[in-house]
Amino acid sequence: MTKPRVTETNVGIQEEMTVAVFDQFARDxxxxxxxxxxxxxxxxxxxxxxxEIGPGPGYVGLEVAKQLGNVTLxxxxxxxxxxxLARNNAESYRIPATYVEGNAMDMPxxxxxxxxxxxxxxxxxxxxxxxxxxxxxxxxxxxxxxCITDLRRDAALWKKWFVYLSTKPKAMRPGLLTSLHAxxxxxEVQVLLQKSTLKTAYVKSDFFGLSIWGAK
Length: 216
Prior knowledge:
CATH class: Alpha Beta
CATH topology: Rossmann fold
Strand content: 15-25%
CATH architecture: 3-Layer(aba) Sandwich
Distance between the termini: 35 Å
Shape: globular
Largest sheet: 7 strands, mixed
Number of helices: 8
């Protein structure tokens, strides 16, 4: 039986030392190909104006932009420390990117201003996912696409142990567990989506997580 959700945080990672450790973790996930980039592109995420919600160090959006080319990248992030890190990483990628501070429930961005919206690993931190889904619908242009990837709380126990033991640096392992306990099941996500203004939404499970995608 799947245990109930345990809320993690809705303020992001703020402390500088933790930010540095998370950057190492995010780079390792990128290098392993475990950060959802391929899944996002496979759902139809393409060029144009791209928004990443909760970019953290920025690697997911930067990798999508690098693979697709001809992308204007914007990130909306709640943590100023993460924004500073993402800007530095964008310079290393030599990809022009804009990062704005804001809560995903009320993004400081104009209506219908993006062709694509992505997010990886932040859904479980959203205080009110329905409001964020509605914000995605608001900022997307007609025909625009979105893809959200995250952990899945009801993944098999052996998979949880496999990912836990594979997580580097080891200092991130307790954080992985709290994130996992705060993550959603497919059924829970489907209930939330029914309450949102997103009219076209598909949800599927993968090895250790889930993907939500669709078009406006």
